[in-house]
Write a structure and sequence with these properties.
Four copies of one chain form a homotetramer. In chain A, β1 and β2 form a beta hairpin. The first copy, chain A, has two domains: 250 residues, Orthogonal Bundle (Hypothetical protein af1432); 142 residues, Growth Hormone, Chain: A (Up-down Bundle), CATH 1.20.1250. Chain A is built from 21 helices and eleven strands. Chain A has a four-stranded mixed beta sheet. The longest helix of chain A is centred in the middle third of the chain and has 22 residues. The termini of chain A are far apart. The first copy, chain A, is an alpha+beta fold and 423 residues long. In chain A, α3 packs antiparallel against α4. At the B-D interface, α11 of B face α11 of D.
């Protein structure tokens, strides 16, 4: 059999051509666990608001890897020493950094695996892969965990100005069509440098970084925390919560068997994930690696025929895009408790639900965002013309980065449109 | 309840903002049958080759409607009479023109409904919708069927230079990242005019049309008939053929019940579609309106655990992207029959299949494309400076459009990589 | 002679196709005074820093007119009454709004005509044109001067969010390649509305406006007030000041006769402009309408051979791009007076200039910018969901627009590189 | 004095950031002869038809150098040996390849220097520069002249698919806004390879090359040979021919002295260029290096006031954009000789010109274009999957490249609009 050419080029509408830099990386990309990311949309059900937002995590990790490759090229031209092995390890670290995402992660993080966030699950996958690849991923894992002695490599993978964020902002803007989120990734990357083992931005790039922070904030409010997106997330979360509850009572649901496994079992930590699932000859982790968007979508599709009225109602809400109304307030004081009670009453009266059941239908919560965290260790440092290094929040005399450090909170209530009351 | 604002604007990364022009159109877009198109990818599994190609038919029909709106605006500034009612009817005709697509239409057209192409099914959906909307779609249906007296409106919806094609070329280029397919839709639309009830292109637009034809041909060979895409289509088609066969023998398959319905029943024509399915209180058409990509994806996912070795093999081929090798030849004479027999033998020997079973694993067929059909009634007419009208294939003294009228055929064989023989 | 088709379409790389909306507008565009704007670069000598910045004011006024056309279309779909005559008047007002610009306006405003800014000269040109066009521009002039009763039309032409600014930001970003300045002009225009005869932005557009303000500020510091651009401006200004001085002493300079006219005569106000120049049978205004970039460039080219050492030095500085060093400080206190004296001394010593002559070679000044002026009458108003209208600086709970209202000042010194002293 | 950082980045709106790769290249770019290219528009007066076409040859040579840099990077990843010295030599060869262009080269090639084309003059400039730079350009000159032993380096600089052509197509499309000319330069460059010391395109790139050839042909007919552009070229050429004639009779013209020098002296070959001009202490070559667009524009501006009626008429034609009518025919037989005589008569009658004078006002000629020259040595070679190499005209079974090899000719007549006769 002819030896396969593994120096592939992949068409990416966002960055153009993405070159695969090594055979190991090619083999990792071909691995089913990576391929699975093709079946997990980057932005969950946001495509119900922005019809173009159908891009998946597979595209994202390729894009982030591409940016790492570009960043390393630039740093090397500036005299920063990075060996080929280190370059590959850093590329792999970002390629694998999202393996631990389940479907609809933003909504369902810690729903299927209760004590672990997606980064911890990613690390577990990397460790397993490292066994399959005879230890070739050891350095990548060190970079990912910030245990490698060149700390700046980790910062390319994970920090307030990492290639992960730069890629997802570019990509989410591109596919949603929200042009406000477009950033000059090229220019930011050209301005990267390393001083005392830390990634810094050369002073000429200060406006680009500022624009990046602003774009990020705008994307939060226009896309990630768009009110209709929050409404969708609420419905999805309550629907799965109801399914888990019904299954716990012995109720039978027509649905994907793998999704059912995760709703019926109490998976909490690494030990649980590494255990034998006693289902399809798989460990729990292997089952998790089979769980993707389509199991949820398929199950929702089936649930639109459910007897249970809450399941049926929520499933049809999502399936036919008859979304819940959401109202947002800057403060709790804005909530009109009388009106809220009125709405709950009318839901109860019309649908005949009890106090517990109504919690699936009427929800209330907080969302918040902070564009820049100046307190964290990983603040964004600017290399000034006099070679001093200062935090971007202080670097720019014309800056308003400090304003971006404020946390903005919003309060919302969410309920079916049919029950809304004319104000 | 506050009256809903239906003059919505939708973000489209391809055309920018798309404005919904009327309340009727808004209500149609909200209809579950339109929303279903969100769950049918425009290019099927092409995303396994071009990772960005995750866009769906919902985006496409909105885009095509937008281009119709733009085209009508231009024609009106040139003095062509189009009433508001006619404009809306034409917008609706194109909005609904793809309703009849099932999942993976390019591969599976006539697989689920054997005697009808997707346009005939679209018409059936439109008729049903017309009942639901109290006859408001009558003119749209006339335009769609070319029964309306202003024939040029139909040509905007369906001809060799219709807004359907212009949108899908733009869109497929955009999402695949194949920049060769980018066309200047703006310029083509600006050059539209109507003479003697026919759409014509003003002479200044001749290069743009030529580029459109060339782009279309390039997209055929680079995307629609990309060899890996053909290989995927073959695997998918054989997988579903096998499933249908196994079900016919009474074999039990874990899969989507709706998909199972279509594999177990012999649905051929409009009468079959309008009949009661005796399943979930639905007509067959209503079930068809529930059949979308996710039922196929979910079933494939389940079949990766199948006992039947053909099912298991083909399902894993697609699920884990271990795709079949495909070899393409310009002519039958290129087939090396000895080698083909060798390959079949080795498949048989290793997997132990009989002659019938091997037809799922080793396939051979023809694909063809003609960029421009100069014989058809709906050829592309150019309005010359002296007001004469001639076919584009003759209009341009510098043209090579005539070359584009040739049908190009390619012959291929397709089989698992593991069985390929070193040449 | 065949009647000319005046419904032309113009290719614009920024906005696509620009349609000329009426015969009157076509005739105005053909007028030599409009055509002259082709010979005045939008950004003067900025192309010495950003090589792509060769676009001219002719392109800009066409682009701004195009945006006005789009804005009026949108407003009309929202029920705002605008007659065809008013639409044309507003288009003409913006088409002509830059007629009064001379070459290198940003540097040389009030240099050739000492008491008038370019808007006042534009008005004078419009009045003259109105005579030539039999009073057809009367309404356009009313709109331009804010004397027309529908005040919102003037705001489209001139305000803090007018189509002038939107076009030049888009255009200058496009041609400089500074992607940070790209704004979503489409989205802003889609969000325009009129309440109580005032242009407002619908609340959904608040992020777009914020981005516009930020982009504007970034463009100021990255392009319009880029330090090298300031350095160039200084050299150009001093060169022409020296020429004027030498001519006043009777010194002969090889140069453009029209430029010489303006350096030798004391033109101050409208009366001066309307007077007979006694040169080439032209009024002074007609001569001004002949003065464009090429007269300056040609004269600089000749002056590179000048005997006068200051002329020769400054002309070669610009012609051969041997630009002056510029140093920028946030405050006067940063100036090191000793070092400044040292630099001046060394210029004096090497070149042998006296105290007066050195003012052409060593300069010092302030530049400032305020992104948003919240005190002005023409602040940007947001139409909130509850139909109240508030200033953008107050509208956004997540906003940092208030920060943008601060005036930022920078102090600089500028002198030949050869005289800089190692710090 | 602080050592200057010469690793500059230049913003290019077409390719993004262009990095200067070495100090020598930086110094060459700073040289007045390179800087002069800023004053020569790439497309002459085409901006009178496409208002955005103000880009100059300086931008183009930087862009072409950037593409060479990218191409060399790609070739090196494919194992092609290119030393740093060879890379720099190739970059320099293309950076300097247009030095020999005078103003409006396409119209005025061989007008100022009668026996040399621009490439021969470029070579002369390079030789002079090589002296100034102590022989550091020797290898670059070898590459430029195809005398270096690695022939493929020359092909990157000059062949039917060189970086010169790729850059100017991209650039001219970008600035004119003619989107039909956009090509995927990225993809073409990614497909480059070298076999037997020849540049080849890998088979996957065949569509991209085909699109490149088609785009090139479209750009010829839509831009480079656009009828109005030809009309402008005719007027400019006749105007300068008239000026030369008048000067030869001793007539005095107000104009640029350097332009006058070239009209009054008979400069034919390298010896003439290297001679002392006896004007401004310069060699003729040094004067040529001062001749740029602005000398022509300034002189045209002055000539609008000329007494000579032909000068005055042609100068105003260009200055105020009152362009001549042009009529184009596929063949001589289409010329209506009677009508032509009628037009000439009416020019003569109205303006009172004699037979000789009328040749400045009424012109007739041929333009032609061949998109691909399959006969030349430098044809475009495709590297097939079986490692054979064939001409693109034969490589593609679906190709129409052979059609592109035909020479297309067009015949035209050109004369003032006022004299046109109603057909």
């Amino acid at each position: 059999m002819k030896k396969q050419n593994k120096k592939k080029i992949i068409n990416d509408p966002v960055h153009g051509f993405i070159s695969i830099q090594s055979e190991l990386i090619f083999d990792l990309i071909e691995h089913p666990w990576l391929q699975r990311l093709r079946r997990i949309r980057q932005l969950g059900m946001t495509y119900l608001v922005y019809p173009g937002a159908n891009h998946n995590r597979f595209q994202h990790v390729l894009g982030a890897m591409h940016l790492i490759t570009e960043a390393i090229k630039i740093l090397k031209t500036k005299g920063i020493k990075i060996t080929n092995e280190e370059a590959e390890a850093t590329q792999i670290a970002i390629l694998l950094h999202d393996l631990g995402h389940g479907p609809f992660s933003h909504t369902l993080e810690k729903f299927f695996v209760q004590d672990l966030n997606h980064e911890e699950i990613s690390l577990l996958f990397m460790s397993e892969l490292n066994k399959q690849f005879d230890g070739k991923l050891t350095m990548a894992i060190q970079v990912f965990q910030n245990e490698y002695h060149k700390k700046f490599l980790h910062q390319l993978v994970s920090s307030q100005l990492d290639m992960d964020r730069i890629d997802y902002l570019c990509r989410d803007s591109f596919f949603t069509g929200v042009s406000e989120g477009v950033i000059g990734s090229d220019r930011i990357i050209k301005m990267l440098n390393v001083v005392e083992d830390q990634i810094v931005i050369e002073a000429k790039g200060i406006y680009s970084v500022e624009k990046f922070l602003i774009a990020r904030r705008l994307m939060y409010w226009q896309v990630y925390l768009h009110k209709t997106v929050i409404s969708i997330d609420q419905s999805l979360h309550q629907l799965l919560r109801r399914a888990r509850y019904l299954l716990s009572t012995g109720y039978e649901l027509q649905m994907s068997p793998i999704l059912k496994f995760f709703l019926q079992n109490d998976i909490r930590n690494c030990d649980d994930l590494l255990a034998d699932s006693q289902f399809r000859h798989s460990t729990v982790l292997e089952l998790f690696a089979r769980l993707d968007d389509q199991h949820i979508y398929y199950s929702i599709s089936e649930w639109t025929f459910e007897q249970d009225r809450i399941m049926n109602f929520l499933a049809n809400t999502l399936y036919n895009r008859k979304l819940f109304r959401i109202q947002i307030f800057p403060d709790y004081s804005f909530f009109n408790q009388d009106k809220i009670e009125q709405i709950k009453h009318s839901i109860r009266d019309v649908m005949g639900f009890d106090a517990d059941e109504i919690t699936y239908i009427f929800t209330s919560d907080i969302v918040s965002n902070k564009a820049y965290d100046s307190s964290k260790d990983n603040n964004i440092n600017i290399l000034m013309p006099d070679n001093s290094i200062i935090d971007i929040a202080k670097a720019s005399d014309i800056s308003n980065v400090s304003v971006l450090s404020n946390t903005v909170r919003k309060y919302f209530i969410c309920y079916p449109k049919v029950f809304s009351i004319i104000p």
